[in-house]
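Narrative of activities, Objective 1.

The group set out to show that a structural description can be obtained from nothing but a protein's sequence at a throughput compatible with the screening campaign. Below is one input-output pair from the validation batch, recorded exactly as produced.
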Amino acid sequence: MISVLASEADQPVVREFFELFKTPWRFHAADAPAKILLCAGRDVPANNAALVIVFAGKLISSDEKTGVKCETPTAPGIFKHDGVELPIYGCRLVENSSQQIIFRRGQVNGRSFVRVGFDLFSEIRHLLTTGQPAEFAATPTLERHIVFLRELILSHALPLIEIPPRPAGHDFIVCLTHDVDHVGIRNHKLDHTMFGFLYRATIGSVLDVFSGKKSCGQLAENFSAVLRLPLVHLGLARDFWYQFENYIALEAGRPSTFFVIPKKGETGLDAKGNRPAKRAASYDAENLRDELRQLQAAGKEVTVHGLDAWRDSVAGRDESARISGLVNGSATGIRMHWLYFDAHAPEKLEAAGYVYDSTFGYNQTVGYRAGASQVFKPLTTKNLLELPMLVMDTALFYPSYLNLSPSQADEKVSPLIANAVQFGGVFTVNWHDRSLAPERLWGNFYSHLLDELSAKNPWFATAAQSVAWFRQRRAATFEISATDQRSVKIHLPAPADKSLPPLRVKTFQPGKTGANGSEQPVRDGMEISLAA
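Output recorded for this entry:
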Protein backbone atom coordinates (compact mmCIF):
# COMPACT_ATOMS: atom_id res chain seq x y z
CA MET A 1 0.00 0.00 0.00
CA ILE A 2 1.29 3.44 -0.96
CA SER A 3 0.42 6.21 1.49
CA VAL A 4 0.40 9.63 -0.21
CA LEU A 5 0.94 12.95 1.56
CA ALA A 6 -0.02 15.82 -0.75
CA SER A 7 -1.65 19.23 -0.52
CA GLU A 8 -5.43 19.47 -0.71
CA ALA A 9 -5.10 21.26 -4.07
CA ASP A 10 -3.18 18.29 -5.47
CA GLN A 11 -5.60 15.62 -4.30
CA PRO A 12 -7.61 15.46 -7.59
CA VAL A 13 -4.32 15.00 -9.45
CA VAL A 14 -3.24 12.25 -7.05
CA ARG A 15 -6.53 10.42 -7.58
CA GLU A 16 -6.17 10.60 -11.35
CA PHE A 17 -2.53 9.54 -11.30
CA PHE A 18 -3.46 6.38 -9.42
CA GLU A 19 -6.20 5.62 -11.93
CA LEU A 20 -3.45 5.58 -14.54
CA PHE A 21 -0.97 3.75 -12.32
CA LYS A 22 -3.66 1.38 -11.04
CA THR A 23 -2.17 0.10 -7.78
CA PRO A 24 -3.33 0.14 -4.11
CA TRP A 25 -2.86 3.52 -2.43
CA ARG A 26 -4.53 5.92 0.01
CA PHE A 27 -4.01 9.39 1.40
CA HIS A 28 -1.67 9.45 4.37
CA ALA A 29 -3.13 9.00 7.83
CA ALA A 30 -0.83 9.05 10.84
CA ASP A 31 -2.44 5.99 12.45
CA ALA A 32 -2.59 3.84 9.28
CA PRO A 33 0.36 1.55 8.54
CA ALA A 34 1.91 1.69 5.08
CA LYS A 35 4.94 0.09 3.49
CA ILE A 36 5.58 3.11 1.25
CA LEU A 37 5.17 6.80 2.10
CA LEU A 38 5.13 9.20 -0.86
CA CYS A 39 5.47 12.87 0.12
CA ALA A 40 4.78 15.46 -2.57
CA GLY A 41 6.19 18.92 -1.82
CA ARG A 42 5.81 18.30 1.90
CA ASP A 43 8.08 17.67 4.87
CA VAL A 44 8.23 14.08 6.02
CA PRO A 45 6.08 13.31 9.07
CA ALA A 46 6.83 10.65 11.68
CA ASN A 47 6.22 7.27 10.07
CA ASN A 48 7.12 3.59 10.09
CA ALA A 49 7.27 3.06 6.32
CA ALA A 50 9.91 0.78 4.84
CA LEU A 51 10.42 3.26 1.99
CA VAL A 52 9.94 7.05 2.01
CA ILE A 53 9.94 8.87 -1.35
CA VAL A 54 9.95 12.67 -1.38
CA PHE A 55 9.12 14.59 -4.55
CA ALA A 56 9.60 18.37 -4.38
CA GLY A 57 10.94 21.00 -6.75
CA LYS A 58 11.91 23.25 -3.86
CA LEU A 59 13.83 22.92 -0.61
CA ILE A 60 12.02 21.41 2.37
CA SER A 61 13.15 21.37 5.98
CA SER A 62 14.69 17.90 5.84
CA ASP A 63 16.91 18.80 2.85
CA GLU A 64 20.60 19.45 3.03
CA LYS A 65 20.74 23.09 1.97
CA THR A 66 24.25 23.09 0.49
CA GLY A 67 25.11 22.22 -3.08
CA VAL A 68 21.62 22.64 -4.52
CA LYS A 69 19.40 25.41 -5.84
CA CYS A 70 15.75 25.77 -6.86
CA GLU A 71 15.33 26.48 -10.56
CA THR A 72 12.21 28.22 -11.89
CA PRO A 73 11.43 26.93 -15.38
CA THR A 74 12.06 29.06 -18.43
CA ALA A 75 12.21 25.90 -20.54
CA PRO A 76 11.66 22.22 -19.75
CA GLY A 77 14.41 20.52 -17.78
CA ILE A 78 15.48 16.90 -18.20
CA PHE A 79 15.56 14.42 -15.33
CA LYS A 80 17.92 11.52 -15.99
CA HIS A 81 17.98 8.27 -14.03
CA ASP A 82 19.06 4.75 -15.01
CA GLY A 83 18.94 5.53 -18.72
CA VAL A 84 15.46 7.10 -18.59
CA GLU A 85 14.98 10.75 -19.48
CA LEU A 86 11.93 12.71 -18.31
CA PRO A 87 11.00 16.23 -19.44
CA ILE A 88 10.21 18.28 -16.32
CA TYR A 89 8.01 21.33 -16.83
CA GLY A 90 7.79 22.80 -13.32
CA CYS A 91 10.22 23.99 -10.67
CA ARG A 92 13.09 21.65 -9.97
CA LEU A 93 15.91 21.28 -7.50
CA VAL A 94 19.29 20.98 -9.22
CA GLU A 95 22.85 20.25 -8.19
CA ASN A 96 25.01 23.37 -8.29
CA SER A 97 27.95 21.45 -9.72
CA SER A 98 26.25 19.52 -12.54
CA GLN A 99 22.92 21.34 -12.94
CA GLN A 100 21.27 17.91 -12.93
CA ILE A 101 17.90 17.50 -11.20
CA ILE A 102 18.67 15.82 -7.92
CA PHE A 103 18.12 12.18 -7.14
CA ARG A 104 19.42 10.91 -3.81
CA ARG A 105 18.82 7.74 -1.89
CA GLY A 106 20.01 6.44 1.45
CA GLN A 107 19.00 5.15 4.87
CA VAL A 108 17.32 7.16 7.63
CA ASN A 109 16.74 5.41 10.97
CA GLY A 110 17.20 2.06 9.25
CA ARG A 111 14.60 2.76 6.55
CA SER A 112 15.11 3.55 2.86
CA PHE A 113 14.78 7.18 1.83
CA VAL A 114 14.65 8.66 -1.70
CA ARG A 115 14.69 12.36 -2.58
CA VAL A 116 13.70 13.50 -6.10
CA GLY A 117 14.05 17.12 -7.18
CA PHE A 118 10.72 17.73 -8.88
CA ASP A 119 7.06 17.71 -7.82
CA LEU A 120 5.46 14.59 -9.30
CA PHE A 121 1.86 15.78 -9.08
CA SER A 122 2.65 19.25 -10.43
CA GLU A 123 4.10 17.47 -13.46
CA ILE A 124 1.03 15.23 -13.84
CA ARG A 125 -1.27 18.26 -13.57
CA HIS A 126 0.63 19.98 -16.38
CA LEU A 127 0.42 16.91 -18.63
CA LEU A 128 -3.33 16.41 -18.13
CA THR A 129 -4.26 20.08 -18.58
CA THR A 130 -1.80 22.08 -20.69
CA GLY A 131 -0.10 19.05 -22.22
CA GLN A 132 3.37 18.76 -23.69
CA PRO A 133 4.83 21.13 -26.29
CA ALA A 134 5.28 19.61 -29.74
CA GLU A 135 9.05 19.31 -29.24
CA PHE A 136 8.40 16.54 -26.67
CA ALA A 137 5.44 14.95 -28.47
CA ALA A 138 7.32 11.69 -29.07
CA THR A 139 8.03 11.20 -25.36
CA PRO A 140 5.48 9.20 -23.31
CA THR A 141 6.35 11.32 -20.28
CA LEU A 142 3.46 10.34 -18.02
CA GLU A 143 4.10 6.65 -18.67
CA ARG A 144 7.75 7.19 -17.78
CA HIS A 145 6.71 8.80 -14.49
CA ILE A 146 4.77 5.62 -13.74
CA VAL A 147 7.73 3.44 -14.73
CA PHE A 148 10.06 5.54 -12.58
CA LEU A 149 7.87 5.20 -9.48
CA ARG A 150 7.28 1.49 -10.09
CA GLU A 151 11.01 0.81 -10.47
CA LEU A 152 11.80 2.79 -7.32
CA ILE A 153 9.45 0.54 -5.36
CA LEU A 154 10.70 -2.70 -6.90
CA SER A 155 14.37 -1.70 -6.48
CA HIS A 156 13.77 -1.73 -2.72
CA ALA A 157 12.51 -5.33 -2.84
CA LEU A 158 8.93 -4.34 -2.05
CA PRO A 159 5.94 -6.19 -3.57
CA LEU A 160 3.59 -4.47 -5.95
CA ILE A 161 0.24 -5.22 -7.55
CA GLU A 162 -1.34 -3.29 -10.42
CA ILE A 163 -3.97 -3.52 -13.13
CA PRO A 164 -2.11 -2.49 -16.31
CA PRO A 165 -3.76 -0.50 -19.12
CA ARG A 166 -4.00 -3.44 -21.50
CA PRO A 167 -6.92 -5.88 -21.93
CA ALA A 168 -6.38 -9.53 -21.06
CA GLY A 169 -5.20 -11.38 -24.16
CA HIS A 170 -3.95 -8.22 -25.88
CA ASP A 171 -0.97 -5.89 -25.60
CA PHE A 172 -2.85 -2.64 -26.24
CA ILE A 173 -5.97 -1.15 -27.85
CA VAL A 174 -6.20 0.26 -31.38
CA CYS A 175 -8.90 2.85 -32.03
CA LEU A 176 -9.36 3.79 -35.69
CA THR A 177 -11.19 7.10 -36.15
CA HIS A 178 -12.21 9.26 -39.10
CA ASP A 179 -13.07 12.96 -39.11
CA VAL A 180 -15.72 13.42 -41.79
CA ASP A 181 -14.87 16.87 -43.14
CA HIS A 182 -15.90 16.75 -46.80
CA VAL A 183 -17.77 13.56 -47.96
CA GLY A 184 -17.73 14.57 -51.65
CA ILE A 185 -15.89 16.94 -53.95
CA ARG A 186 -19.21 17.57 -55.68
CA ASN A 187 -20.04 19.77 -52.68
CA HIS A 188 -17.20 22.13 -53.63
CA LYS A 189 -17.66 24.38 -56.65
CA LEU A 190 -15.16 27.16 -57.35
CA ASP A 191 -14.21 27.43 -53.68
CA HIS A 192 -10.85 27.24 -51.88
CA THR A 193 -11.21 23.47 -51.39
CA MET A 194 -11.70 22.77 -55.10
CA PHE A 195 -8.88 25.07 -56.18
CA GLY A 196 -6.63 23.57 -53.51
CA PHE A 197 -7.44 20.12 -54.87
CA LEU A 198 -6.57 21.19 -58.44
CA TYR A 199 -3.21 22.59 -57.36
CA ARG A 200 -2.24 19.64 -55.18
CA ALA A 201 -3.40 17.08 -57.77
CA THR A 202 -1.33 18.66 -60.53
CA ILE A 203 1.64 20.88 -59.65
CA GLY A 204 1.76 19.62 -56.07
CA SER A 205 1.76 15.98 -57.21
CA VAL A 206 4.60 16.60 -59.66
CA LEU A 207 6.66 18.14 -56.85
CA ASP A 208 5.75 15.22 -54.57
CA VAL A 209 7.05 12.71 -57.13
CA PHE A 210 10.42 14.49 -57.26
CA SER A 211 10.63 14.61 -53.45
CA GLY A 212 9.70 10.93 -53.06
CA LYS A 213 6.36 11.60 -51.39
CA LYS A 214 4.28 10.16 -54.25
CA SER A 215 4.81 7.57 -56.96
CA CYS A 216 4.38 8.04 -60.71
CA GLY A 217 1.29 5.85 -60.46
CA GLN A 218 -0.22 8.20 -57.89
CA LEU A 219 0.62 11.15 -60.11
CA ALA A 220 -1.30 9.50 -62.95
CA GLU A 221 -4.22 8.77 -60.63
CA ASN A 222 -4.38 12.41 -59.56
CA PHE A 223 -4.25 13.67 -63.17
CA SER A 224 -7.06 11.26 -64.02
CA ALA A 225 -9.14 12.63 -61.13
CA VAL A 226 -8.65 16.19 -62.41
CA LEU A 227 -9.91 15.15 -65.84
CA ARG A 228 -12.94 13.44 -64.29
CA LEU A 229 -13.85 16.40 -62.07
CA PRO A 230 -16.25 18.06 -64.60
CA LEU A 231 -18.04 14.72 -65.03
CA VAL A 232 -18.34 14.38 -61.24
CA HIS A 233 -20.00 17.80 -61.02
CA LEU A 234 -22.36 16.86 -63.88
CA GLY A 235 -23.31 13.63 -62.10
CA LEU A 236 -21.83 11.51 -64.90
CA ALA A 237 -18.94 10.05 -62.86
CA ARG A 238 -18.63 8.69 -59.35
CA ASP A 239 -17.55 11.21 -56.71
CA PHE A 240 -14.04 10.02 -55.82
CA TRP A 241 -14.12 11.77 -52.42
CA TYR A 242 -16.99 9.53 -51.31
CA GLN A 243 -15.03 6.92 -49.32
CA PHE A 244 -17.33 5.25 -46.76
CA GLU A 245 -17.49 1.95 -48.65
CA ASN A 246 -13.71 1.93 -49.18
CA TYR A 247 -13.10 2.36 -45.46
CA ILE A 248 -15.45 -0.54 -44.68
CA ALA A 249 -13.56 -2.73 -47.17
CA LEU A 250 -10.08 -1.62 -46.12
CA GLU A 251 -10.70 -2.08 -42.40
CA ALA A 252 -11.99 -5.60 -43.08
CA GLY A 253 -14.29 -5.99 -40.09
CA ARG A 254 -12.22 -3.93 -37.69
CA PRO A 255 -14.35 -1.48 -35.65
CA SER A 256 -13.82 2.25 -36.17
CA THR A 257 -15.45 5.57 -35.30
CA PHE A 258 -16.67 8.30 -37.67
CA PHE A 259 -16.98 11.86 -36.33
CA VAL A 260 -19.61 13.72 -38.37
CA ILE A 261 -20.09 17.51 -38.54
CA PRO A 262 -23.68 18.31 -37.45
CA LYS A 263 -24.33 21.53 -39.42
CA LYS A 264 -23.69 22.49 -43.03
CA GLY A 265 -22.21 25.94 -43.61
CA GLU A 266 -21.62 26.67 -39.90
CA THR A 267 -18.11 27.83 -39.03
CA GLY A 268 -18.48 28.08 -35.27
CA LEU A 269 -16.45 30.56 -33.24
CA ASP A 270 -12.74 30.30 -32.55
CA ALA A 271 -11.09 31.33 -29.28
CA LYS A 272 -10.93 34.98 -30.43
CA GLY A 273 -14.58 35.14 -31.47
CA ASN A 274 -13.79 34.89 -35.19
CA ARG A 275 -15.65 32.73 -37.71
CA PRO A 276 -13.04 31.17 -40.02
CA ALA A 277 -14.88 30.50 -43.30
CA LYS A 278 -12.70 27.49 -44.15
CA ARG A 279 -14.01 25.65 -41.09
CA ALA A 280 -17.57 25.32 -42.44
CA ALA A 281 -18.64 21.94 -43.82
CA SER A 282 -20.11 21.81 -47.34
CA TYR A 283 -22.11 18.64 -46.73
CA ASP A 284 -25.39 18.21 -44.92
CA ALA A 285 -25.41 15.36 -42.40
CA GLU A 286 -29.18 15.07 -42.93
CA ASN A 287 -28.47 13.75 -46.43
CA LEU A 288 -26.22 10.99 -45.04
CA ARG A 289 -28.77 9.16 -42.89
CA ASP A 290 -28.62 5.95 -44.96
CA GLU A 291 -24.82 5.99 -45.22
CA LEU A 292 -24.37 6.55 -41.48
CA ARG A 293 -26.67 3.65 -40.64
CA GLN A 294 -24.79 1.45 -43.11
CA LEU A 295 -21.60 2.33 -41.25
CA GLN A 296 -23.25 1.28 -37.99
CA ALA A 297 -24.40 -1.98 -39.59
CA ALA A 298 -20.76 -2.64 -40.50
CA GLY A 299 -19.72 -2.31 -36.84
CA LYS A 300 -18.73 1.34 -36.97
CA GLU A 301 -19.55 4.01 -34.40
CA VAL A 302 -21.00 7.30 -35.65
CA THR A 303 -20.79 10.34 -33.40
CA VAL A 304 -20.15 14.10 -33.31
CA HIS A 305 -17.44 16.21 -34.95
CA GLY A 306 -18.25 19.30 -32.95
CA LEU A 307 -18.25 22.96 -33.90
CA ASP A 308 -19.18 25.02 -30.84
CA ALA A 309 -19.63 22.33 -28.17
CA TRP A 310 -16.16 23.04 -26.73
CA ARG A 311 -17.22 26.56 -25.65
CA ASP A 312 -21.04 26.33 -25.30
CA SER A 313 -22.86 23.41 -23.67
CA VAL A 314 -26.21 24.44 -25.19
CA ALA A 315 -24.68 24.28 -28.66
CA GLY A 316 -23.08 20.98 -27.66
CA ARG A 317 -26.44 19.44 -26.79
CA ASP A 318 -27.86 20.61 -30.11
CA GLU A 319 -24.94 19.10 -32.04
CA SER A 320 -25.38 15.78 -30.25
CA ALA A 321 -29.13 15.79 -30.90
CA ARG A 322 -28.61 16.44 -34.62
CA ILE A 323 -26.35 13.41 -35.08
CA SER A 324 -28.36 11.23 -32.67
CA GLY A 325 -31.43 11.88 -34.83
CA LEU A 326 -29.69 10.34 -37.83
CA VAL A 327 -28.32 7.13 -36.31
CA ASN A 328 -29.36 4.20 -34.16
CA GLY A 329 -28.57 5.23 -30.59
CA SER A 330 -27.25 8.38 -28.96
CA ALA A 331 -24.17 10.27 -30.13
CA THR A 332 -22.40 10.92 -26.82
CA GLY A 333 -18.80 11.02 -28.00
CA ILE A 334 -17.15 14.01 -29.63
CA ARG A 335 -14.02 15.33 -31.27
CA MET A 336 -13.86 19.04 -32.01
CA HIS A 337 -13.41 20.15 -35.63
CA TRP A 338 -9.90 21.61 -36.06
CA LEU A 339 -9.19 20.31 -32.54
CA TYR A 340 -10.54 23.45 -30.86
CA PHE A 341 -10.02 23.04 -27.11
CA ASP A 342 -9.24 25.07 -24.00
CA ALA A 343 -9.08 24.61 -20.23
CA HIS A 344 -12.88 24.89 -19.87
CA ALA A 345 -13.78 22.59 -22.77
CA PRO A 346 -14.04 19.34 -20.74
CA GLU A 347 -16.64 20.74 -18.33
CA LYS A 348 -18.59 22.34 -21.21
CA LEU A 349 -18.67 19.02 -23.06
CA GLU A 350 -19.74 17.16 -19.92
CA ALA A 351 -22.53 19.68 -19.31
CA ALA A 352 -23.69 19.03 -22.88
CA GLY A 353 -24.11 15.32 -22.09
CA TYR A 354 -21.02 13.85 -23.73
CA VAL A 355 -19.38 10.89 -21.99
CA TYR A 356 -16.08 11.07 -23.86
CA ASP A 357 -14.01 13.48 -25.92
CA SER A 358 -11.13 12.68 -28.29
CA THR A 359 -9.73 16.13 -29.08
CA PHE A 360 -6.59 16.15 -26.93
CA GLY A 361 -3.80 15.79 -29.48
CA TYR A 362 -1.72 17.75 -31.96
CA ASN A 363 -2.54 19.31 -35.32
CA GLN A 364 1.10 19.81 -36.27
CA THR A 365 2.72 16.56 -35.18
CA VAL A 366 2.02 13.08 -33.80
CA GLY A 367 2.54 11.81 -30.28
CA TYR A 368 1.58 12.21 -26.64
CA ARG A 369 0.12 15.58 -25.77
CA ALA A 370 -0.90 14.19 -22.35
CA GLY A 371 2.31 12.20 -22.04
CA ALA A 372 0.40 8.93 -22.38
CA SER A 373 -2.13 7.19 -24.61
CA GLN A 374 -4.28 6.06 -21.68
CA VAL A 375 -7.86 7.29 -21.39
CA PHE A 376 -7.98 9.78 -18.51
CA LYS A 377 -10.48 11.96 -16.66
CA PRO A 378 -9.88 15.71 -17.01
CA LEU A 379 -9.46 17.28 -13.59
CA THR A 380 -12.58 19.45 -13.96
CA THR A 381 -15.07 16.69 -14.89
CA LYS A 382 -16.94 14.05 -12.91
CA ASN A 383 -17.79 11.53 -15.62
CA LEU A 384 -16.46 12.63 -19.00
CA LEU A 385 -13.26 10.84 -20.06
CA GLU A 386 -10.64 11.91 -22.57
CA LEU A 387 -9.37 9.56 -25.29
CA PRO A 388 -6.09 11.15 -26.48
CA MET A 389 -5.45 11.27 -30.22
CA LEU A 390 -2.03 9.87 -31.14
CA VAL A 391 -1.55 9.81 -34.93
CA MET A 392 -3.28 12.02 -37.54
CA ASP A 393 -2.77 11.75 -41.28
CA THR A 394 -2.61 15.48 -41.98
CA ALA A 395 0.03 15.95 -39.26
CA LEU A 396 2.21 13.35 -41.01
CA PHE A 397 1.77 14.47 -44.61
CA TYR A 398 0.60 18.10 -44.89
CA PRO A 399 3.29 20.45 -46.26
CA SER A 400 2.56 22.92 -43.46
CA TYR A 401 3.10 20.25 -40.79
CA LEU A 402 5.61 17.37 -40.82
CA ASN A 403 5.46 16.95 -44.64
CA LEU A 404 6.84 13.40 -44.57
CA SER A 405 7.29 10.78 -47.26
CA PRO A 406 5.69 7.38 -46.57
CA SER A 407 9.03 5.93 -45.45
CA GLN A 408 9.66 8.90 -43.16
CA ALA A 409 6.14 8.59 -41.75
CA ASP A 410 6.82 4.92 -41.02
CA GLU A 411 9.97 5.91 -39.11
CA LYS A 412 7.94 8.47 -37.16
CA VAL A 413 5.11 6.10 -36.24
CA SER A 414 7.08 2.90 -35.54
CA PRO A 415 8.41 4.08 -32.12
CA LEU A 416 4.85 4.96 -31.09
CA ILE A 417 3.75 1.41 -31.94
CA ALA A 418 6.67 0.03 -29.91
CA ASN A 419 5.59 2.23 -26.98
CA ALA A 420 2.04 0.87 -27.25
CA VAL A 421 3.38 -2.67 -26.90
CA GLN A 422 5.51 -1.61 -23.91
CA PHE A 423 3.03 0.58 -22.03
CA GLY A 424 -0.42 -0.45 -23.27
CA GLY A 425 -3.06 2.26 -23.64
CA VAL A 426 -4.91 3.20 -26.81
CA PHE A 427 -3.27 3.79 -30.17
CA THR A 428 -5.79 6.30 -31.55
CA VAL A 429 -5.52 7.00 -35.27
CA ASN A 430 -7.35 9.80 -37.10
CA TRP A 431 -7.56 9.24 -40.89
CA HIS A 432 -9.83 11.82 -42.55
CA ASP A 433 -12.69 10.74 -44.76
CA ARG A 434 -11.11 11.93 -48.05
CA SER A 435 -7.57 10.76 -47.28
CA LEU A 436 -7.87 7.54 -49.31
CA ALA A 437 -8.88 9.53 -52.39
CA PRO A 438 -7.13 11.79 -54.91
CA GLU A 439 -5.31 14.13 -54.35
CA ARG A 440 -4.08 12.83 -50.98
CA LEU A 441 -3.91 9.11 -51.81
CA TRP A 442 -2.81 8.19 -48.29
CA GLY A 443 -4.62 4.86 -48.42
CA ASN A 444 -1.49 2.77 -49.00
CA PHE A 445 0.09 4.08 -45.83
CA TYR A 446 -3.14 3.57 -43.91
CA SER A 447 -3.29 -0.05 -45.11
CA HIS A 448 0.37 -0.50 -44.13
CA LEU A 449 -0.36 1.00 -40.70
CA LEU A 450 -3.26 -1.42 -40.19
CA ASP A 451 -0.97 -4.34 -41.02
CA GLU A 452 1.75 -3.08 -38.68
CA LEU A 453 -0.70 -2.64 -35.82
CA SER A 454 -2.47 -5.96 -36.44
CA ALA A 455 0.84 -7.81 -36.12
CA LYS A 456 1.31 -6.54 -32.54
CA ASN A 457 -1.61 -8.34 -30.84
CA PRO A 458 -3.99 -5.40 -30.25
CA TRP A 459 -7.69 -5.26 -29.50
CA PHE A 460 -9.40 -3.16 -32.18
CA ALA A 461 -12.23 -1.11 -30.70
CA THR A 462 -14.38 1.91 -31.42
CA ALA A 463 -13.76 5.08 -29.44
CA ALA A 464 -16.78 4.31 -27.25
CA GLN A 465 -15.57 0.75 -26.60
CA SER A 466 -12.04 1.95 -25.79
CA VAL A 467 -13.41 4.42 -23.26
CA ALA A 468 -15.80 1.81 -21.82
CA TRP A 469 -12.90 -0.59 -21.22
CA PHE A 470 -10.97 2.08 -19.33
CA ARG A 471 -14.11 2.99 -17.40
CA GLN A 472 -14.30 -0.65 -16.33
CA ARG A 473 -10.65 -0.49 -15.23
CA ARG A 474 -11.34 2.67 -13.24
CA ALA A 475 -14.23 0.92 -11.47
CA ALA A 476 -11.92 -1.79 -10.08
CA THR A 477 -10.91 -1.25 -6.44
CA PHE A 478 -8.41 -2.80 -4.04
CA GLU A 479 -9.13 -3.85 -0.47
CA ILE A 480 -6.24 -4.39 1.93
CA SER A 481 -7.00 -6.85 4.72
CA ALA A 482 -7.14 -5.15 8.13
CA THR A 483 -5.65 -8.23 9.79
CA ASP A 484 -3.08 -9.14 7.15
CA GLN A 485 -1.58 -6.20 5.26
CA ARG A 486 -0.18 -8.64 2.69
CA SER A 487 -3.62 -9.76 1.49
CA VAL A 488 -5.20 -7.73 -1.35
CA LYS A 489 -8.74 -8.34 -2.62
CA ILE A 490 -9.86 -6.92 -5.97
CA HIS A 491 -13.45 -5.79 -6.40
CA LEU A 492 -14.79 -5.44 -9.91
CA PRO A 493 -18.37 -4.30 -10.57
CA ALA A 494 -20.20 -6.14 -13.30
CA PRO A 495 -19.30 -4.48 -16.64
CA ALA A 496 -22.04 -2.57 -18.43
CA ASP A 497 -20.83 -4.16 -21.68
CA LYS A 498 -20.03 -7.87 -21.28
CA SER A 499 -18.41 -8.00 -24.73
CA LEU A 500 -15.42 -6.02 -23.46
CA PRO A 501 -12.25 -8.05 -22.85
CA PRO A 502 -11.45 -8.61 -19.17
CA LEU A 503 -8.89 -6.76 -17.10
CA ARG A 504 -5.67 -8.37 -16.01
CA VAL A 505 -3.69 -8.02 -12.80
CA LYS A 506 0.10 -7.98 -12.58
CA THR A 507 1.91 -8.97 -9.39
CA PHE A 508 5.56 -8.36 -8.52
CA GLN A 509 6.73 -10.61 -5.69
CA PRO A 510 10.37 -10.06 -4.61
CA GLY A 511 12.22 -13.34 -4.93
CA LYS A 512 9.16 -15.09 -6.41
CA THR A 513 8.56 -13.38 -9.76
CA GLY A 514 10.91 -11.90 -12.32
CA ALA A 515 11.36 -8.28 -13.24
CA ASN A 516 8.23 -8.44 -15.42
CA GLY A 517 6.02 -9.85 -12.68
CA SER A 518 3.26 -12.41 -13.25
CA GLU A 519 -0.14 -11.76 -14.83
CA GLN A 520 -3.60 -13.27 -14.71
CA PRO A 521 -7.14 -12.16 -15.68
CA VAL A 522 -9.04 -10.27 -12.98
CA ARG A 523 -12.04 -11.90 -11.32
CA ASP A 524 -14.32 -10.06 -8.93
CA GLY A 525 -13.34 -10.86 -5.35
CA MET A 526 -10.03 -12.51 -6.24
CA GLU A 527 -7.47 -12.38 -3.45
CA ILE A 528 -3.73 -12.05 -3.89
CA SER A 529 -1.22 -12.59 -1.11
CA LEU A 530 1.86 -10.39 -1.38
CA ALA A 531 5.29 -11.20 -0.03
CA ALA A 532 6.29 -9.77 3.33
